Amino acid sequence: MAPMKLYGEMTWNVMRCVVALEEAGVEYEIVPINLGTGEHKSPDHLNRNLVKPFGQVPALQDGGLYLWESRAISKYACRKNKKELLKEGNLKESAMVDVWLEVEAHQYSSALNPILFEYLIRPKLGGTCNLKVVEQNLEKLKKVLEVYEARLTKCKYLAGDFISLADLNHVSATLFLFATPHASVLDAYPHVKA
Protein backbone atom coordinates (compact mmCIF):
# COMPACT_ATOMS: atom_id res chain seq x y z
CA MET A 1 0.00 0.00 0.00
CA ALA A 2 1.33 3.44 -0.93
CA PRO A 3 2.21 5.81 1.88
CA MET A 4 -0.12 8.68 2.66
CA LYS A 5 0.98 12.05 1.30
CA LEU A 6 0.90 15.06 3.57
CA TYR A 7 1.09 18.31 1.63
CA GLY A 8 2.44 21.39 3.34
CA GLU A 9 5.24 23.47 4.73
CA MET A 10 6.41 22.76 8.27
CA THR A 11 4.02 25.03 10.15
CA TRP A 12 2.44 24.12 13.47
CA ASN A 13 -0.69 22.87 11.66
CA VAL A 14 1.34 20.55 9.44
CA MET A 15 3.40 19.43 12.43
CA ARG A 16 0.16 18.63 14.31
CA CYS A 17 -0.52 16.06 11.58
CA VAL A 18 3.04 14.76 11.65
CA VAL A 19 2.80 14.13 15.39
CA ALA A 20 -0.46 12.17 14.95
CA LEU A 21 0.83 10.24 11.93
CA GLU A 22 4.01 9.30 13.78
CA GLU A 23 2.21 8.27 16.98
CA ALA A 24 -0.33 6.26 14.98
CA GLY A 25 2.47 4.48 13.10
CA VAL A 26 1.26 5.62 9.69
CA GLU A 27 3.55 5.37 6.68
CA TYR A 28 3.56 8.82 5.06
CA GLU A 29 5.66 11.26 3.10
CA ILE A 30 5.67 15.03 3.27
CA VAL A 31 5.18 16.79 -0.04
CA PRO A 32 6.42 20.37 0.34
CA ILE A 33 4.05 23.18 -0.65
CA ASN A 34 5.71 26.59 -0.87
CA LEU A 35 3.43 29.11 0.82
CA GLY A 36 5.76 31.98 -0.07
CA THR A 37 5.20 31.46 -3.80
CA GLY A 38 1.47 30.88 -3.39
CA GLU A 39 1.68 27.20 -4.33
CA HIS A 40 -1.14 26.51 -1.84
CA LYS A 41 -3.44 28.52 -4.17
CA SER A 42 -2.39 26.62 -7.31
CA PRO A 43 -5.05 24.62 -9.19
CA ASP A 44 -3.32 21.32 -8.31
CA HIS A 45 -3.40 22.06 -4.60
CA LEU A 46 -6.89 23.55 -4.67
CA ASN A 47 -8.11 20.26 -6.16
CA ARG A 48 -6.65 18.47 -3.14
CA ASN A 49 -8.74 20.65 -0.86
CA LEU A 50 -11.97 19.90 -2.74
CA VAL A 51 -13.43 23.17 -1.51
CA LYS A 52 -11.48 25.42 -3.83
CA PRO A 53 -11.62 28.75 -1.97
CA PHE A 54 -9.71 27.43 1.04
CA GLY A 55 -6.36 26.58 -0.54
CA GLN A 56 -4.85 25.64 2.80
CA VAL A 57 -2.19 23.35 4.12
CA PRO A 58 -2.03 20.72 5.28
CA ALA A 59 -3.84 18.44 2.92
CA LEU A 60 -3.63 14.65 3.10
CA GLN A 61 -3.98 12.09 0.34
CA ASP A 62 -4.63 8.48 1.26
CA GLY A 63 -5.22 6.65 -2.01
CA GLY A 64 -8.27 8.35 -3.52
CA LEU A 65 -9.24 10.11 -0.29
CA TYR A 66 -8.25 13.75 0.17
CA LEU A 67 -8.61 15.50 3.52
CA TRP A 68 -7.77 18.96 4.72
CA GLU A 69 -7.81 20.60 8.17
CA SER A 70 -5.06 19.41 10.49
CA ARG A 71 -7.34 18.20 13.27
CA ALA A 72 -9.47 16.14 10.88
CA ILE A 73 -6.32 14.65 9.35
CA SER A 74 -5.02 13.78 12.82
CA LYS A 75 -8.28 12.09 13.81
CA TYR A 76 -8.32 10.15 10.54
CA ALA A 77 -4.78 8.85 11.14
CA CYS A 78 -5.77 7.69 14.61
CA ARG A 79 -9.05 6.12 13.50
CA LYS A 80 -7.27 4.25 10.74
CA ASN A 81 -4.18 3.06 12.62
CA LYS A 82 -4.40 3.63 16.37
CA LYS A 83 -7.95 4.01 17.65
CA GLU A 84 -6.83 3.88 21.27
CA LEU A 85 -5.59 7.47 20.89
CA LEU A 86 -9.27 8.47 20.58
CA LYS A 87 -10.59 5.97 23.15
CA GLU A 88 -13.47 5.21 20.78
CA GLY A 89 -14.22 1.92 22.54
CA ASN A 90 -15.08 3.68 25.81
CA LEU A 91 -17.85 6.27 25.71
CA LYS A 92 -16.78 8.18 28.83
CA GLU A 93 -13.09 8.29 27.92
CA SER A 94 -13.77 9.19 24.28
CA ALA A 95 -16.04 12.00 25.44
CA MET A 96 -13.20 13.39 27.57
CA VAL A 97 -10.83 13.15 24.60
CA ASP A 98 -13.39 15.11 22.57
CA VAL A 99 -13.73 17.76 25.28
CA TRP A 100 -9.99 18.38 25.43
CA LEU A 101 -9.67 18.31 21.63
CA GLU A 102 -12.23 21.13 21.58
CA VAL A 103 -10.43 23.01 24.35
CA GLU A 104 -7.19 22.77 22.39
CA ALA A 105 -8.83 24.07 19.22
CA HIS A 106 -10.93 26.85 20.72
CA GLN A 107 -9.07 27.95 23.85
CA TYR A 108 -5.39 26.99 23.72
CA SER A 109 -4.77 27.48 20.01
CA SER A 110 -6.94 30.58 19.75
CA ALA A 111 -4.69 32.22 22.36
CA LEU A 112 -1.38 30.79 21.15
CA ASN A 113 -1.76 31.09 17.37
CA PRO A 114 -1.73 34.92 17.30
CA ILE A 115 1.49 34.91 19.35
CA LEU A 116 3.10 32.47 16.94
CA PHE A 117 1.88 34.47 13.96
CA GLU A 118 3.31 37.71 15.29
CA TYR A 119 6.75 36.26 15.97
CA LEU A 120 7.13 33.61 13.29
CA ILE A 121 4.97 34.54 10.32
CA ARG A 122 4.48 38.32 10.24
CA PRO A 123 8.24 38.99 9.90
CA LYS A 124 8.37 36.58 6.93
CA LEU A 125 5.62 38.65 5.32
CA GLY A 126 7.69 41.81 5.76
CA GLY A 127 5.90 43.08 8.86
CA THR A 128 6.97 43.66 12.43
CA CYS A 129 5.71 41.91 15.52
CA ASN A 130 2.69 43.64 17.10
CA LEU A 131 3.54 43.44 20.80
CA LYS A 132 0.06 44.58 21.82
CA VAL A 133 -1.45 41.52 20.12
CA VAL A 134 1.19 39.34 21.78
CA GLU A 135 0.51 40.74 25.26
CA GLN A 136 -3.28 40.40 24.92
CA ASN A 137 -2.96 36.79 23.84
CA LEU A 138 -0.37 35.95 26.48
CA GLU A 139 -2.95 36.94 29.10
CA LYS A 140 -5.53 34.68 27.41
CA LEU A 141 -3.00 31.87 27.22
CA LYS A 142 -2.19 32.17 30.92
CA LYS A 143 -5.87 31.77 31.80
CA VAL A 144 -6.02 28.61 29.70
CA LEU A 145 -2.84 27.31 31.29
CA GLU A 146 -4.35 27.84 34.74
CA VAL A 147 -7.22 25.52 33.76
CA TYR A 148 -4.75 22.98 32.36
CA GLU A 149 -2.61 23.14 35.50
CA ALA A 150 -5.67 22.42 37.68
CA ARG A 151 -6.71 19.55 35.42
CA LEU A 152 -3.23 18.01 35.39
CA THR A 153 -3.06 17.97 39.18
CA LYS A 154 -5.97 15.51 39.08
CA CYS A 155 -4.88 13.21 36.25
CA LYS A 156 -1.75 12.35 34.32
CA TYR A 157 -2.98 13.62 30.93
CA LEU A 158 -5.73 15.98 29.84
CA ALA A 159 -8.44 13.42 29.10
CA GLY A 160 -7.50 11.10 31.97
CA ASP A 161 -4.67 8.83 33.01
CA PHE A 162 -3.96 7.86 29.40
CA ILE A 163 -2.27 9.68 26.54
CA SER A 164 -4.60 10.61 23.72
CA LEU A 165 -4.87 12.74 20.62
CA ALA A 166 -6.01 15.54 22.94
CA ASP A 167 -2.48 15.68 24.35
CA LEU A 168 -0.76 15.15 21.02
CA ASN A 169 -2.64 18.01 19.38
CA HIS A 170 -0.89 20.41 21.77
CA VAL A 171 2.64 19.34 20.83
CA SER A 172 3.17 21.23 17.59
CA ALA A 173 2.07 24.73 18.60
CA THR A 174 3.79 24.32 21.97
CA LEU A 175 7.06 23.45 20.25
CA PHE A 176 6.73 26.56 18.11
CA LEU A 177 6.18 28.61 21.29
CA PHE A 178 9.78 27.72 22.19
CA ALA A 179 10.89 29.67 19.08
CA THR A 180 9.46 32.87 20.62
CA PRO A 181 10.70 34.92 23.57
CA HIS A 182 7.78 33.60 25.65
CA ALA A 183 8.65 29.93 26.19
CA SER A 184 9.14 30.73 29.86
CA VAL A 185 5.38 31.30 30.25
CA LEU A 186 5.16 27.55 30.96
CA ASP A 187 7.45 27.84 33.98
CA ALA A 188 4.55 29.03 36.15
CA TYR A 189 2.61 25.83 35.38
CA PRO A 190 4.79 22.86 36.41
CA HIS A 191 2.22 20.14 35.58
CA VAL A 192 1.68 21.61 32.13
CA LYS A 193 5.40 21.96 31.55
CA ALA A 194 6.01 18.36 32.63
TrEMBL record:
* GO function terms (MF aspect): glutathione binding; glutathione transferase activity
- GO CC: one term? cytoplasm
GST C-terminal domain residues are: 90-194
Tell me the ranges covered by the GST N-terminal domain, including all copies: 1-85
In short, the EC number is 2.5.1.18
**Record keyword Transferase present:** yes
Query: Mind telling me which Gene3D superfamilies this protein's record contains?
Result: 1.20.1050.10, Glutaredoxin
The top EC class is transferase
Q: Give the SUPFAM superfamilies listed for this entry.
A: GST C-terminal domain-like, Thioredoxin-like
**UniProt KW keywords:** Transferase
One GO process term, biological-process aspect: response to herbicide
Its recorded reaction(s) are: RX + glutathione = an S-substituted glutathione + a halide anion + H(+)
The superkingdom listed in its UniProt entry is: Eukaryota
Q: Which family does it belong to?
A: Belongs to the GST superfamily. Phi family.
Protein name per UniProt: glutathione transferase
Which species is this UniProt entry from? Eragrostis curvula (weeping love grass)
